[in-house]
Amino acid sequence: MSLTIEPFEQHGRPCVRLRHPRGATAAASLHGAHVLSWKPAPGRGRLYLSPNASHLPGSAVRGGIPVIFPQFSGRGPLVKHGFARLLEWRFAGLQDATPFGQAAVFEVDDSEHTRSQWPFRFGARLHVGLSEDALQVGLEVLNRDESAFAFTAALHTYLRVARLSAVELDGLESTPYEDSARKSTPMPAANAPIRFDGELDRVYANTPSALRLRDGESTLHIEAEGFRDTVVWNPGATLSASMGDLGAGEHLRFVCVEAGTVVEPVTLAPGDRWLGVQRLRE
Fold it and tell me: What's the pLDDT at 98?
């Protein structure tokens, strides 16, 4: 079944909406190639977008699926989470020859601006595919430089939840983690599903490819390819209230389950490509 594309504007930003013939939709902004929403058919919206998010030029949008490249968080000299989510991307249309069939494709290249921060020539693509009950997002990086370069990357996915106290994330029970909320303290495997009862910020290395987010009677299946690690985050009540683009109580409406390669950087030789994919499925 063929997908259709509808251009529109949101907060003065050019966006595109992707429609599946059976009713599923997704929307993305050209600012940061930022996926703003995903609604399976039939079903509720599955991504969280903060009502207090900034949509100003040069700012990152709080919620949806921010593209993290070429640096995760503060793990390096660049601006936090890199510059990809702050750039204006091009919409390259609906294409059939993507890693997962027909998808909307967004592109960005290096520029004098990016090279002033990170001195390499690159190309990046974001592939956004949609089926009746699933969303697939693929980040592709091409090295156009004469030298190899290293980077970290992630899809910082904000998943909407109905009741945070009832949420459990399965699949990481046997994996040790780094506790970023406690000065990156190494922690042993918890041997239990992840529950969200306070600030939680964990980096799991070399994780299983399939996870399950249970939210009451609802289950979301989360799969990754190419990305080696998983980051799980919720700011908790105190941090949420202090964040101007989030606000008091907003932490109760989402959890972040991020497909990433953040512990060991990817090293890409000249002319080589790398691809990381995250799939969300009801």
Answer: 86
